[in-house]
Amino acid sequence: MKYCINCKQTVQPAKSGFNVIAFIILLCLGCCPGVIYILYHVLKTERCPMCNSINWGVQPIMEPVQQQVVKGIFCPNCGTRINEEHDYCVGCGRKV
Ligand SMILES: [Zn+2]
Ligand SMILES: [Zn+2]
Known about the structure:
This protein is α+β, with helices and mostly antiparallel strands and 96 residues long. It has helices spanning 20-29, 31-43; strands spanning 2-4, 9-11, 56-57, 73-74, 81-82. Bound molecules: zinc ion (2 copies).
């Protein structure tokens, strides 16, 4: 998996399938074209399947989303925050 800067996401780089028939034909022509074909295939640049670019980069480290843990509960009557220790709403006196 690589990170595409264009798409701003990690994608599986697209690689065209290894053409076995072309490889055999090249091997019939001689050893060298076949070897060149393998080298060409191996060295061929991987492209983004989404935007077809080669704009690979490093995925920016995601800032962890600060989860604000809301302590206590809220009064269903007036919406005042009530500490868990309290049984009654400090705003309206309703029992919670
Ligand atoms: Zn892309
Ligand atoms: Zn209340």
